[in-house]
Amino acid sequence: MAPTKKTFNALIYYEENDNNRMKCKTCSRVLKKDRVFNLKKHLLLHGIRPVQKENNSDSKKNMKHSKKNMKHQQIKVQISKKNLVRSYIGLVTEDGFPFDVLDSNNMRNIIDPICQGLKDKSGKNFILNGSKCKAVLEQVAANIKLEIHEECKNRLISLKIDSATGLDPNIFGISAQFISKNEIKSRILGMVELKGAGSSAFENLAKEIVSVLDKYEIALSQIVTITSDNGANMISQIHTGDDDTGKACILQNIEYTKQIDLFDTTENICVGEIQICQCAAQIAQLCALDVTKNTVIREYLFQCRNLTKYILEPSNGYRDLFELRNFTLPQLDCPTRWGSTYNMIDQLNKAKSILSLIETVENNSQDEHIVVNKLLWDFMDSYVTIMAPLQKTIMQFQQEQLHYGNFYALWLVCKLSTNQIVTTSNSSKDSIIYTIGEMLIASMEARTKQLGSNVGFDASLYLDPRFQHILDGSQKQRAINFLKTLWTQIKIHSPIQNLSLTNSNTSHTEHKESNLDLLDDFLSVGVVKNESTDVHEKIEMLKLPYMKSSTNDLNFWKERKSSDPELYALSKICFAIPTTQVTIEPAFSFLKLVLSDNRNRLSHHTLENILLVRLNSAHLDSAIENLNLFVDED
After folding, report:
1. Residue 127: CB partners within 8 Å, gap ≥ 6?
2. Which end of the chain is more exposed for a tag (fewer CB within 10 A), N or C?
3. Residues 148, 218: contact at Cβ < 8 Å?
4. From CA 34, how far away is CA 22, in angstroms rounded?
5. Alpha-carbon distance 420 to 434, whole Å?
């Protein structure tokens, strides 16, 4: 057998220049690419030489020798118990591994030698396995709860509730929101599972919320607002068992229409005297659904849905064609999945080059009849054009933690952008783009007026230097009344002496933010506050200077906390009122992975621990540090 040799690739020491030339990476000299001898000869100047020939027998001997050495080779790993435990439970809480994997042979081959090297001084083994991970997870979750308990002590907070429609319509997540260190913070408190229907479901939800609050010793009098993803309508999902992801693929058009109507209904659900209200961000999805109520638009929408069903049917062969042409396969929309209608139509419109060849499918069924013609393509193009600003806003509402001021700023930009598209369009008033645009603008105007019913909306704008001047008399009066009531709440849970010129925070865990705070503490000793320049009068007489739209409200009030500590305290609570469900919704997407078929034996308690640890990552390191496991470490 002829000996083999390792080839010497000189080109790896050069980079492409131009005109079939190569530039040396070492000295930048340029040579012709097809002069291989010259390329190799040049490398000799830099001490780079071709490898020597190596026959098969030598190679086998070397390999055998290497394997022999590997049997006696040991690997040294530098890792602390803390990092090991953090990574180990992270396999479950962050990567979604089932506990069974932690006990697999392959995992044991990796973990056991490390644990052997981490024996304590007495020789006692350090053990990590599936059951140990659950126990550690329990301890870490308990430590996180203690830290959240301290954060929420003597503090007014707002709650967010979201139903896990993609996971289980009977499961709800509860989180607290407040401002700390000049940032909006969200803390997952727990999850509840409801059973029952009608008024019993309402009562059960209220009881479960109170039960979760009791775990943290949070009184109902500390709660400013309770916001849900779609208001009291979430209870209706328990009645119907609807799943916005699982059933979307089989949702027929008549059911689709019913869901649109259901999405806009509300019921009164109260926790104590606090009524649960829908998050303000839902206004965007409601406007998108309002457009579909036009009979002409709805008929076009049904055609798009039927076309999507046709494409998704494997026997029609479009899945492979979409992949071949690098198009995104459209997914059937669902009213409760924000922005899904736009995504479906946009993906259809982008694939026009291959879908325009589909012939009209005549069928008596409303869910199978397809008419693919110029009118349908004009509708798709018009829809994605006029709805683009709204879709962008919907995505922002789902991705960003917003207070009412920033929420309203984005919403106004959306309204102005949509109106600009309509007014600058050359289309006639009979065109489909004009029809969609007029309906959307009318819906935006009507829905915007309804925002005033959201608790704290007017008050937040009243404290926002960008928007205070645009409020009318009734809005200002609602804001003033709300702020007066809120001030009474603050005095109950945060005694007046705690609202000093320098200590406006209400949590033991909120540390000094800078050396200037220390200086302010020193200089303010002995200063007597004139707190009774009646706070109510301050609220009534408040006149803020107009600031540009780029103003950071939290920074604006932080700079005024010494001169207006009471108003600063009010601003922190108002700007902490949630407008979106950014924190909770991604959590349930993760839990859906955890609850796959081979993991459905997990108890509700274990699932809640996973949720707490995963989504309260700000407390994870300190929670692990405080485990009894590490009391003997330096």
Report:
1. 115
2. C
3. no
4. 9
5. 12
Q: How many CA atoms lie within 13 A of 136 on its CB side?
A: 27
Q: What is the pTM of this model?
A: 0.76
For the chain, the distance separating the N- and C-terminal CA atoms, rounded to the nearest angstrom, is 62
Whole-number Å distance between alpha carbons of 387 and 341: 10
Q: Which of 351, 392, 377 lies closest to 433 in space, CA to CA?
A: 377
- Of 490, 479, 488, 472, the C-alpha closest to 455 is 479
Residue 340 tokens read as 């899904």
Q: CB burial class (10 A; 0-12, 13-18, 19+) of residue 308? A: buried
| Cα–Cα distance measured from residue 335 to residue 434, given in angstroms and rounded to the nearest whole number | 23
Answer for the pair 14, 20: CB distance below 8 angstroms, yes or no: no
Look up residue 105 and give its two tokens: 């042979």
Q: Please report, for the chain, the start and end positions of each structural domain, with discontinuous segments joined by +.
A: 1-57, 281-453, 457-505+534-574
Which of 65 and 252 is assigned the larger pLDDT? 252
> How deeply is 525 buried, as exposed, middle or buried, from its count of CB atoms within 10 A (0-12, 13-18, 19+)?
exposed
Tokens of 444: 């935006």
H or E element: which one contains 16? strand 14-16
Output the CA–CA distances (angstroms, integers) from residue 89 to 188, 444, 514, 538, 564, in the order listed: 18, 46, 35, 51, 46
| C-alpha–C-alpha distance, residues 93 and 68, integer Å | 40
Helix or strand (DSSP H, E) at 190: strand 183-193
Reading the block at residue 146, the tokens are 């203690």
Residues 94-143: pLDDT tens digits? 887 888 888 889 988 888 888 888 776 666 777 888 888 888 899 999 99
Residue 503 tokens, joined:
């200590």
The DSSP secondary structure of 203-249, one letter per residue, reads HHHHHHHHHHHHHTT--GGGEEEEEESSGGGHHHHHHH---TTTTGG
Report the DSSP beta bridge partners of residue 168: 164
Q: Which residues, other chains included, contact 124 with Cβ-Cβ below 8 Å and sequence gap of 6+?
A: none
Q: Which residues contact 439 (CB under 8 A, 6 or more apart)?
A: 290, 291, 294, 297
Q: How many CB atoms lie within 10 A of CB 74?
A: 6
Integer Cα distance of 176 and 428 in angstroms: 50
Distance of CA 222 to the CA centre of its chain: 26
Predicted confidence (pLDDT) per residue in 288-338, tens digit:
999 999 999 999 999 999 999 999 988 888 888 898 889 999 999 988 888
**Of the candidates 198, 199, 194, which has an alpha carbon nearest to the alpha carbon of residue 209?**
194
